[in-house]
Please model this.
Amino acid sequence: MRRIRRFLATPFGLAVLACLALAGWALWSGGVLDGPVARDVRTSSVYAAPGTGLDEAAAERVVGNRRLVVLLLEPGADLREGCDRVRHAADGTLVLVLARDGDEYERYGCALLPGVGDENFGRAFVAETTISRGVDQFPDRPLEALKVVVVNYDTLVRSGTVPDGSRTISPSLPRYLVAAAAVLAVLLGSAVVFAAGRRAGRLAADRRSRLAEAGDARTALSAAAAVLAQQIIDLDARGPGSGAYQRRYRRLVSGCAAVLGELAAADERTAAKLTERVEALIAEGRRLGAP
Model:
């Protein structure tokens, strides 16, 4: 939990939260929680329950692009609940819910039009009661009843009770695509950042390990060079010896000078080899200083 909190406190974590919020909004506004009626109404102006006998394609042509949504539910259905189900999906329209009841229709209207609602109860009441007048004349012909509903709607528009204008249907697919793209971007971005972070961490650890090894090798080389230098000082204090001794001593001094010249440029790869050379010179110095 502590790591998650620290992550969310970073700019990247906040960006992830913002993208997730955007994805959730897109999914919700796209109707991911809608029932079958609401999903149909999002892209259609007519919903007919199975067995009602209404040709939805013909009914769509009759309604056209009016701000009108008609739901023909099965007999005995809760009409008010049907209106509540599509309140978000059919926002901006006048909704009429019908259900066959013997030789007539049960009717329920809800005005979801802009400018017609609780703040203007009179216009909403007139629209909801007028839109269904005359539908009982065609209990066996729902398409003809729908034509009467359309005539009533046009009358409401001409009287100014219902605002004029056409319905704009926004398919939910683009919203789903936006949501999917946002989620995918978050997942891919997180995966890329995680992989890059792990790689950077490995590189940093390897570099620290190499530096530590190089430091250890240079320390060992410096210590060996100090021992060799002390040997040369001790041998020099003994004074001149035989000719063979002098030749061996000069080779030792030359070897020490060569190693010291390379000491400053030594790295982790050359330090080990130089250490071996210095240790060989130290062994030679011991033999030279032996009585």
User: Anything to note?
Assistant: Strands lie at 46-48, 68-73, 94-101, 104-111. Residues 218 and 271 are 6 Å apart (CA to CA).
